[in-house]
């Protein structure tokens, strides 16, 4: 039995391509300006958003390793 990995290269992901990187940068810049312009509306709910991050990190962060 041959257990070596196959020699066919996989296709690169979209987010690693030049257009994917450019799109990601534009999304980050747009999100920055959106948050900057609406900070007055966002600031009262920031503590609740931080508290909401805790269960989300537990939900999505513990799935690596395949032990579940």
TrEMBL record:
Against Pfam families, the record matches this protein to: DUF2933 (PF11666)
Spell out the InterPro entries in the cross-references: DUF2933
Keyword Transmembrane annotated: yes
What are the alphabetically sorted keywords of the record? Membrane, Transmembrane, Transmembrane helix
Query: What are the transmembrane regions?
Result: 20-36, 42-61
List the protein's name.
Answer: DUF2933 domain-containing protein
Source species:
Pseudomonas cucumis
């Amino acid at each position: 039995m041959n257990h070596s990995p196959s020699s066919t290269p996989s296709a690169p992901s979209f987010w690693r391509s030049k257009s994917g990187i450019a799109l990601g940068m534009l999304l980050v810049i747009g999100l920055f300006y959106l948050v900057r312009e609406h900070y007055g509306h966002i600031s009262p709910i920031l503590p609740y958003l931080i508290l909401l991050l805790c269960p989300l990190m537990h939900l999505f962060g513990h799935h690596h390793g395949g032990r579940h």
